[in-house]
TrEMBL record:
Family as reported in the entry's similarity comment: Belongs to the cytochrome b561 family.
InterPro entries: Cyt_b561_bac/Ni-Hgenase, Cytochrome_b561_oxidase, Di-haem_cyt_TM
Keywords on record: Cell membrane, Electron transport, Heme, Iron, Membrane, Metal-binding, Transmembrane, Transmembrane helix, Transport
Organism of derivation: Undibacterium oligocarboniphilum
Gene Ontology cellular-component annotations: plasma membrane
Residues in coiled coil: none
Source organism, top-level taxon: Bacteria
Protein name (record): Cytochrome b
Listed GO biological process terms: respiratory electron transport chain
PANTHER family recorded: CYTOCHROME B561 (PTHR30529), CYTOCHROME B561 HOMOLOG 2 (PTHR30529:SF1)
Cofactor (UniProt): heme b
Length: 184
């Protein structure tokens, strides 16, 4: 499969990919591990810039992922490098799971906030103090959504790391242009 040169992804697809990746990493770094304890101690999340940024970036990820899915339905055909069937299947599976996680993380965060009675605080002073529609939803009692959110945050970082390593493997070992097709 060496020197399998194929076309580039379109500029908007690249932008969605890299902006989302950067935002996810920043949101992960800013995600306060002791969020629940802080709120239980009466700390107002509006006074914590890390929480405000984390929640704002989560909403941005959700919005970008929605826009990205709309773009996928109307964009030019994406490059399809030649690869073995198992590689293609694994690649598709990883992309599907990453897409699922990009939606699931913000949703589990909202479920955690709503079921625990904590406000959603965003940049610009936007705040939703109560989310009774979430607290009364059937899903609210099915899990400790804060723990689910933390777990999925770890999963997306591990999977994104594996995804990045696979791209480097394609570039260094297979020399098939996969990484170059997504670089700006």
């Amino acid at each position: 499969m060496k020197n399998n040169v194929f076309s580039q992804h379109d500029k908007l697809s690249k932008a969605f990919h890299w902006v989302t990746a950067i935002i996810v990493v920043i949101a992960f770094i800013l995600g306060p591990g002791d969020f629940g304890r802080l709120l239980d101690e009466g700390i107002d999340p509006g006074t914590r810039i890390d929480i405000i940024w984390h929640e704002s970036l989560g909403i941005a990820v959700f919005t970008l992922t929605l826009l990205r899915l709309v773009w996928v339905t109307v964009r030019p055909v994406a490059p399809r490098p030649q690869m073995t069937a198992w590689m293609r299947l694994l690649s598709q599976l990883v992309h599907l799971v990453l897409c699922f996680l990009l939606f699931a993380l913000p949703i589990t965060a909202l479920l955690a906030l709503g079921t625990e009675g904590h406000p959603l605080t965003l940049l610009g002073g936007f705040r939703i103090n109560e989310m009774p529609f979430i607290a009364s939803a059937h899903l609210s009692g099915l899990a400790d959504w804060g723990e689910v959110h933390k777990f999925l945050g770890d999963v997306i970082m591990w999977l994104a790391g594996i995804h990045a390593l696979a791209a480097v493997y394609h570039h260094v070992k297979l020399k098939d242009g996969v990484l170059k097709s997504m670089l700006p």
